[in-house]
Design goal:
The complex is a heterodimer of chains A (about 110) and B (about 110).
Chain A (H helix, E strand, L loop, with lengths): L3 E4 L2 E4 L5 E7 L5 E8 L3 E10 L2 E4 L6 E3 L9 E3 L8 E8 L8 E2 L3 E5 L1
Chain B lengths: L2 E4 L4 E4 L4 E3 L1 E4 L5 E7 L5 E7 L5 E4 L2 E4 L9 E3 L8 E8 L8 E2 L3 E6 L1
Parallel strand pairs in B: 2-12
Antiparallel strand pairs in B: 1-4, 3-9, 5-6, 5-10, 7-8, 8-9, 10-11, 10-12
Classes of the chains: A mainly beta (about 110), B mainly beta (about 110).
Chain lengths: ~110, ~110
Amino acid sequence: NAGVTQTPKFRILKIGQSMTLQCTQDMNHNYMYWYRQDPGMGLKLIYYSVGAGITDKGEVPNGYNVSRSTTEDFPLRLELAAPSQTSVYFCASSSASTNEKLFFGSGTQLSVL
Amino acid sequence: GNSVTQMEGPVTLSEEAFLTINCTYTATGYPSLFWYVQYPGEGLQLLLKATKADDKGSNKGFEATYRKETTSFHLEKGSVQVSDSAVYFCALMFSGGYNKLIFGAGTRLAVHP
């Protein structure tokens, strides 16, 4: 029972580099989310998706892009990495049938130097 | 706007001590309230929830009561264990909002033998 799987677990980027954080879920959930966790700041919503082909901005979308071509996958793209994007990134999923419960991946720790 | 405020940590307790972690919220409407827990190196997992005023959520010995009059959802446990050491997040969600969560900053709990 995999749940929500994120890769990689750790990554160091140089300023200006790009990368994609991968997220996949095997629970057939319609809703998927990307949050970033900064120390002392809690989790902030970057982007979310309510189904394949549908995405929308959250609270802090600048510097990121997403796509949702399948129900299972929701990758997060950083095009020009900046030090302000150093954070821990969490992917999560849920649906109307999960009784408002979100299922989280184990996170990606990203450092931009 | 909608927001969640938690007491600052870290909270350090001895095993079998009583735990309270304060959480208050500001919301335009009547949200559902949640406590999520993050154990070291893991993603967040739902601990308990309450969906309307005066509801009490409970799980694994933890309890929290939805208090509309004080806009609070304080987390309590009568006797903590070393295994309860984690970061605890209070959060709110509005129905019809695709299960998007608004988180507090988190409170780290350290329990010593």
